[in-house]
Amino acid sequence: MTRNAQSGATMRSVNDPTAKGKGPPQGTDALRKPAPASRTEAVQEALRQAIIEQKLRPGARLPEDAIGETFGTSRTIAREALGRLAVEGLVELKPNKGAYVANPTLEEGRDIFTVRRGLEQTVAGLIAGRLTSAQLAELRAFNERERAASGIDERESIRLAGEFHLILARMTGNQLLIRYVTEVVSRCSLILAMYGRPHSADCGVDEHAEIIGALEKGDAARALLLMDRHLESVAGRALLEAKPENDIRDLLAPYAAKVREQFE
User: Fold this and answer.
1) Would you call 242 helix, strand, or coil by DSSP?
2) Closest by alpha carbon to 245, among 47, 57, 64, 50?
């Protein structure tokens, strides 16, 4: 960024992703997960959570008719939701066989984390020193939610750990970056749920707090370093240890109830 010599005002390059209103959003909107815009999106989010929380096991078949019946939707909506999750890497579409929960190898997981480290360093660099006091306060509040779940609910800890990084991405205001980070975080959450050591997400609570501190101080170099070390540690806390099946309607019932409430 450059400074106007006469006015002292900060000038932004047209290539700066924070320019033209695309910088860190003011207020607290970035911390609130956007409400689903459609039933398809609601089903997609519900299935995503069921997969990450290991309610739907890796390799499990995802029949469109059963999903549509459970959520009270058509097979078309179920098919669209599964297609979107396939783009995220959480679902595998097999020709003439249907959809299945992705079953990535640990080696694939390492590749995903390599990509994620680069993306999230970009996120940290964009928002360091640019967050409002309200945004910082809510990040700390979210960090306390993580701490409360630590050592108590492993699945919730994994979910919150991933959500923390999505919040940071949303704060950039860069829609393409948000999309890419969302995809890799979802895949990484599945990897951790499959292979992570018990309570492996708990160690990240303090690491997240350190990242927040660096972002508040505007120390971009330290924020990038802490983010990279954090994600390296998260990847290192994964083990190649598959975890020890049920009707899909029963597994999805709690998620379907929430979706039905939104559209009734």
Assistant:
1) coil
2) 57
Cα separation, 56 vs 74, whole angstroms: 20
pLDDT band for position 7 (50/70/90)?
very low
221-225: Cβ within 8 A, 24+ apart: 223/124, 223/125, 223/128, 224/121, 224/124, 224/125
The CA-to-CA distance between both ends of the chain, in Å, stands at 49
CATH tag, 39-104+245-263: 1.10.10.10
Helix (H) or strand (E) holding 98, with range, is strand 98-101
User: Tens digits of per-residue pLDDT, 51-83?
Assistant: 988 889 899 999 999 999 999 999 999 999 999
Residue 21 φ then ψ, to 5°: 80, 10
Tell me how far apart the alpha carbons of residues 76 and 60 are, in angstroms, rounded to a whole number. 20
Are 99 and 88 a contacting pair, CB within 8 Å?
A: no
Nearest alpha carbon to residue 86 among 193, 183, 192: 183
Q: How far is CA 192 from CA 47, 58, 104, 250, in A?
A: 17, 12, 11, 24
Domain 106-236 has CATH 2.40.37.10: no
Domain spans of the chain, in order of start:
39-104+245-263, 106-236
Number of neighbours of residue 106 by Cβ within 10 angstroms: 15
What is the C-alpha separation between 98 and 82, in angstroms, rounded?
A: 10
0.90 exceeded by pTM: no
Tokens representing residue 211 in the block = 């990242």
Indicate the length of the chain as a whole number: 264
| Number of C-beta neighbours around residue 8 at 10 A | 7
Give the pLDDT band (50/70/90) at residue 246: low
Spatial CB neighbours of 68, under 8 Å, sequence gap ≥ 6: 74, 75, 77, 78
